[in-house]
Design a protein that fits this description.
The chain is an alpha/beta fold. The protein has helices at residues 38-41, 49-52, 76-82, 85-88, 102-110, 121-129, 174-185, 204-209, 255-260, 262-281, 283-290, 299-307, 317-333, 343-350, and strands at residues 63-67, 93-97, 116-120, 134-141, 145-150, 165-168, 195-198, 215-219, 232-237, 249-254. Strands 2-1-3-10-4 form a five-stranded mixed β-sheet, with helices on both faces. This is ABC transporter substrate-binding protein.
């Protein structure tokens, strides 16, 4: 029954337990395909001879790759530099730390301030709907967003949230978008049944202590600290249930780079996917590569964060389009994407195959 006294239909369509937390079991290391189609068929890195085995560069000038150094889930990016994977693929790459929101990062790619970048699907889909000249070439991993409830406020499951206040660091954040989707899958209205309130990420815990919010939705590494707070419970995250094999972060390539130097875009995508699989194979090495960007966290803690993600999820081709179409449908359900948008056509328009 809702707050107006009306009976609410049961719509628990999300195939995850009400409380879903903790590290995902790690499966066997993914194979590294040696075929041109391996990138599509198996989600593995392409090691095709025309690019990987060339000594000469496939781009005359260094490519500028944008990322957000505050996101531990992108640990494969610094690992790629440590392993010289860009050079292996015939590229010189300049890493640009973009401290703004990831939709601004997408705009930087579209306007030529960067050649490519890595960012979050649930931040990028809306501006891509509006026509940014950027194509998605691959997914990089799943996981990194978490929803915590305050035990003192009686918030231990998704169904405890009606009438409560959820704190976020950004009212257009991927975390707000994702957990709004989760609420709808439990038959709740994210715009009416809960209130969303914005605080700086490092003050969300204090807002809980003051009783100003009753739950926190945010991303690693900052939200990770609440896993150790006995006053909080991790309600769910974005590697639970049907989202366990869904990518949350993407590779975006500038449209003009694809038109002017498709081989460079292909090599960059392959290098990033190879780095992602290297990270999955050795999470400690990935954590150590990222550690200089998160000096407040020991390597062991960064590794634990990475272990709770899904770093073996690197969809491309049809699987990438399928996952982005699912996200588009879900974002339509929470009024982020226009309901008139054809999800399948949209996913096809914003992606590119680089096999």
């Amino acid at each position: 029954m809702d707050r107006g006294g009306r009976t609410r239909p049961a719509r628990l369509t999300l195939s995850l337990p009400i409380s879903c937390k903790g590290p995902r079991p790690m499966t066997a290391n993914p194979p590294l395909s040696l075929t041109r189609r391996g990138l599509i068929a198996a989600g593995a890195v392409t090691l095709a001879a025309p690019f990987v085995l060339r000594r000469r560069a496939v781009a005359a000038e260094p490519l500028r790759l944008s990322w957000n150094a505050g996101a531990v889930c992108f640990s494969a990016v610094p690992l790629a530099f440590q392993l010289d994977l860009f050079k292996k693929h015939g590229l010189e790459v300049e890493l640009v730390n973009f401290t703004g929101s990831t939709d601004q990062l997408l705009e930087a790619i579209a306007t030529g301030k960067a050649d490519a970048g890595v960012g979050m699907a649930l931040r990028w889909l809306k501006p891509l709907e509006q026509g940014f000249d950027v194509k998605i070439s691959a997914g990089l991993h799943g996981g990194c967003m978490r929803l915590f409830g305050a035990k003192a406020a009686g918030v231990k499951t998704v169904l405890d949230l009606p009438g409560k206040v959820i704190g976020v660091s950004d009212m257009a954040s991927p975390s707000k978008n994702f957990f709004s989707v989760v609420l709808t899958k439990f038959g709740l209205d994210p715009n009416k049944d809960v209130e969303w309130r914005q605080f700086p990420a490092d003050l969300l815990g204090l807002a809980v202590e003051k009783g100003e919010i009753h739950a926190i939705a945010d991303g690693d590494p900052l939200v990770w600290r609440h896993t150790k707070d006995p006053r909080m419970v991790e309600i769910t995250n974005n590697v639970c249930g049907e989202f366990a094999t869904r990518t949350c972060c993407l590779v975006g390539v500038r449209g003009s780079l694809l038109r002017d130097n498709r081989p460079a875009a292909r090599a960059l995508t392959a290098a990033l996917i190879e780095a992602q699989h290297a990270a999955y194979a050795d999470l400690r090495a990935a954590a150590a590569a990222y550690a200089p960007f998160a000096p407040k966290f020991p390597v062991e803690e960064l590794e634990a964060m990475l272990r709770s993600h899904a770093h073996n999820v690197t969809p491309v081709g049809d699987e990438l389009r399928h996952q982005l179409a699912l996200y588009t449908d879900e974002l339509k359900s929470v009024s982020v994407i226009k309901r008139s948008t054809d999800s399948q056509r949209f996913a096809g328009r914003i992606t590119v195959d680089l096999a």
